[in-house]
Q: What sequence folds into this?
């Protein structure tokens, strides 16, 4: 990834990932960094088509293995078309969601084989791994008040509790990369914690 820095922002729906990604982008740009802000699923034209299928509440018959592979397919296109080229140019990439979302939502949430999900995704992105992952933590009861009702968001609170638990377990397991930031308080207060974490963990 020649010179670039890859930061991912994770969290359950409604926790404020996009708002925090914008705050972080602005803070980095004001320090003179060149930043690419993107997201999964849907960070490319092809990914936009895949996102439409993944989130369509009408497509109730979507098989879980198809779901896992569609997220991985979106990610493969995104890595090849956006992430790797930006990192190759030495830019900072802020990506809302990456492989950890598949492990949390499809692995911990739906109960599918985590090792298989990691292996499929590792192959899909040629081993690309974030330098730093900020996990914004909030209880589902609170976060979901801000979420919509797409195909994933129609899942139960128990499902989201498993997803959150998955992120917290990953934070314990991959503490060197994945940092928990409590998404409590004002947007500015959370943004400050995110900024502190980035400055503490990365040499940029
Ligand atoms: P978004 O609303 O954050 O853009 O993400 C769309 C939905 O897709 C969200 O409910 C989380 C879900 N998701 C997964 O289930 N697995 C994944 O790998 C990713 C990237 C997202």
A:
């Amino acid at each position: 990834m020649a010179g670039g820095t890859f930061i991912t922002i994770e969290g359950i729906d409604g926790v404020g990932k996009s708002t925090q990604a914008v705050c972080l982008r602005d803070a980095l740009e004001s320090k003179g960094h060149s930043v690419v802000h993107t997201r999964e699923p849907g960070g490319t034209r092809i990914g936009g088509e895949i996102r439409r299928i993944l989130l369509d509440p009408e497509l109730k018959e979507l098989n879980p293995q198809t779901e896992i592979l569609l997220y991985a397919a979106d990610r493969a296109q995104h890595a090849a078309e956006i992430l790797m080229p930006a990192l190759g140019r030495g830019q900072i990439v802020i990506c809302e969601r990456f492989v950890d979302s598949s492990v949390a939502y499809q692995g911990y949430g739906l109960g599918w084989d985590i090792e298989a999900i990691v292996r499929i995704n590792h192959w899909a992105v040629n081993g690309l791994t974030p330098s730093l992952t900020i996990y914004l933590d909030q209880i589902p009861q609170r976060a979901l008040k801000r979420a919509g009702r797409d195909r994933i968001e129609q899942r139960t609170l128990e499902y989201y509790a498993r997803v959150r638990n998955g992120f917290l377990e990953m934070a314990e397991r991959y503490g060197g990369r994945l940092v928990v930031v409590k998404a409590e308080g004002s947007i500015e207060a959370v943004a400050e914690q995110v900024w502190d974490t980035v400055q503490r963990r990365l040499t940029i």
